[in-house]
């Protein structure tokens, strides 16, 4: 059953890219899913480089960014990123993974030509990975879901800025070549771009987390008197949150795209298992307890795709899409959690082994419900908008 809706409305160019990406992920990337260079902190840099070289040869490296540097539309990007997600290694291989994909989008929107050449181009070419330094340790009362709590500071010193603080859950910091660092000045939040590694940015430890698909894992980092040239500030002092919002709404949505692809694949594996495995004299698919779960998966997968495409169309219209991306993040992450859980359940003992990617997809999607804002924070944000709109309507 074709789980991709309405793709006939996409350009022939986009459809052709999507076909090449899906073929590459299914026929090449999936062969690496049991590679020994995968560990609990993600794929090694050696494996990452090998996969990106294969994608480069296949013409599918960074496929959502065109040769002239322009991006596909969000709607077109959905068709591509869903397919890169068909393997947990697909986004890494095709250079569409977080945080690189979000960082590329942000820099493509706001960076000067000099910053693009120095920092963006190597990421787009798959030569360097990047990290986004915003979240801070909870035990210190730093920024998490509430970025206004940021404790990391930056202060001007001649033609430089000096940054001090701690960051937490920084994806891919270990091994990254480019970093985007957020800190607070007297004017408010600021955003800087820096070369990595830097001796002033110390990785204290790599956390053991439930997910394992992102190179470098998630790190606790100390920033100790990091000196950054003033021309490496993105925008002006105090504009950091404004630029963060440019990144966050599309990044929430591209997370949804990639993990939809992963759950489509997990559902394929569970469906194949249910149609071959017998119990109590019948195939598992013929037992309502299993067949109904797979039917519910199709419904959730389709609804997730429709929500993604709806939000993509909103962003393509020029609307910043804050509320819509929150709704998509909630609906898709919760739906995909149900899908992943049912896939494990349908497969029984086999579903919790490493013999297929199903167990890993379950773990990755569970983490997805938290990063880029947990479900509860997005619901709270929407509730505030509901209250504000209600009050406005009463005053009219």
UniProtKB/TrEMBL annotation:
Its cofactor is FAD. This is Acyl-CoA dehydrogenase family protein. The keyword Amino-acid biosynthesis does not apply. Residues 238-385 form the Acyl-CoA dehydrogenase/oxidase C-terminal domain. InterPro entries: Acyl-CoA_dehydrogenase (IPR050741), Acyl-CoA_Oxase/DH_mid-dom (IPR006091), Acyl-CoA_Oxase/DH_mid-dom_sf (IPR046373), AcylCo_DH-like_C (IPR036250), AcylCo_DH/oxidase_C (IPR009075), AcylCoA_DH/ox_N_sf (IPR037069), AcylCoA_DH/oxidase_NM_dom_sf (IPR009100). Keywords: FAD, Flavoprotein, Oxidoreductase. Residues 131-208 form the Acyl-CoA oxidase/dehydrogenase middle domain. PANTHER family: ACYL-COA DEHYDROGENASE FAMILY MEMBER 11, MEDIUM-CHAIN SPECIFIC ACYL-COA DEHYDROGENASE, MITOCHONDRIAL-RELATED. Pfam families: Acyl-CoA_dh_1, Acyl-CoA_dh_M. Transmembrane segments: none annotated. It comes from the Bacteria. The keyword Zinc-finger does not apply. Belongs to the acyl-CoA dehydrogenase family.
């Amino acid at each position: 059953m074709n789980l991709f809706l309405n793709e006939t409305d996409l350009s022939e160019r986009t459809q052709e890219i999507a076909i090449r990406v899906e073929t590459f992920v299914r026929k090449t990337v999936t062969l690496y899913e049991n590679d020994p260079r995968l560990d609990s902190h993600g794929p090694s840099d050696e494996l990452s480089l090998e996969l990106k070289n294969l994608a480069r040869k296949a013409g599918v490296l960074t496929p959502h960014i065109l040769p002239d540097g322009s991006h596909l539309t969000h709607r077109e990007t959905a068709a591509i990123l869903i397919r890169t997600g068909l393997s947990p290694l697909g986004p890494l291989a095709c250079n569409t993974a977080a945080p690189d994909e979000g960082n590329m989008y942000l820099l493509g929107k706001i960076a000067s030509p000099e910053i693009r050449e120095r920092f963006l181009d190597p990421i787009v070419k798959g030569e360097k990975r990047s990290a986004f330094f915003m979240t801070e340790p909870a035990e210190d009362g730093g920024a998490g879901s509430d970025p206004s709590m940021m404790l990391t500071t930056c202060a001007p010193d001649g033609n430089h800025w000096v940054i001090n603080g701690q960051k937490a859950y920084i994806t891919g910091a270990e091994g990254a070549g480019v970093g985007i660092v957020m800190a607070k000045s007297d004017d408010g939040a600021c955003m800087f771009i820096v070369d990595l590694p830097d001796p002033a940015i110390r990785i204290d430890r790599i956390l053991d987390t439930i997910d394992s698909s992102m190179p470098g894992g998630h790190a606790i980092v100390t920033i100790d008197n990091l000196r950054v040239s003033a021309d490496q500030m993105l925008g002006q002092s105090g504009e950091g949150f404004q630029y963060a919002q440019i990144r966050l709404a599309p990044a929430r949505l591209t997370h949804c795209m990639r993990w939809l692809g992963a759950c489509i694949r997990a559902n394929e594996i569970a469906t194949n298992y249910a149609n071959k495995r017998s119990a109590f004299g019948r195939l598992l698919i013929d037992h309502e307890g299993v067949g109904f779960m797979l039917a519910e998966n199709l419904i959730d997968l389709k609804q997730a795709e429709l929500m993604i495409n709806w939000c993509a169309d909103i962003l393509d219209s020029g609307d910043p899409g804050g509320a819509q991306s929150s709704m998509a993040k909630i609906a898709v992450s919760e739906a995909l959690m149900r899908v992943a859980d049912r896939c494990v359940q349908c497969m029984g003992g086999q579903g919790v082994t490493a013999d297929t990617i199903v167990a890993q997809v379950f773990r990755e999607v569970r983490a997805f419900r938290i990063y880029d804002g947990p479900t509860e924070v997005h619901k709270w944000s929407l509730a505030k908008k509901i209250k504000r709109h209600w009050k406005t309507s009463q005053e009219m």
